[in-house]
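Task card 7
Instruction: Convert sequence to structure tokens.
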Amino acid sequence: MGWLRVAGMLSFALAALHLAMVFVGAPAYRFFDAGEQMASAAEEGSPFPALITLLLVLVFTLFGIFGLSGAGVLRELPFLKGILTIISVIFIVRGLAVLQQGWSWWLGSGVVGPKQLVFSLASLGIGTIFAIGTWKLWFRPRPPVTVLK
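Output:
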């Protein structure tokens, strides 16, 4: 299975996870550290947390579609290589928070728990998978051009 296919499937899994959060509500927002404001708003029946989370569902779904397009499962989308590069950077930058989080955890600050480290490592891993697949896409051998005479 290709790198971008795996990255696309992982993005769809993230979309499904976020969609489930909408239905679970405040406990899910608390567990995934979305913030007490989001959890409280969900408990009060505000549509805001669900709308923000559904926006993330849309973003992760688009990431998945672009991953599968890059893998050749779906037709090639416009600006594919550039968008896949941006997606890779987004996940990797988010994942690099693990450096600061790990340092804080190591020092015993109590601010960062193991769960945040796992979330950051997951993001870094998904970003790396996207990046490897995107790199291969950028530098894949091109078929020879035939000139008609």
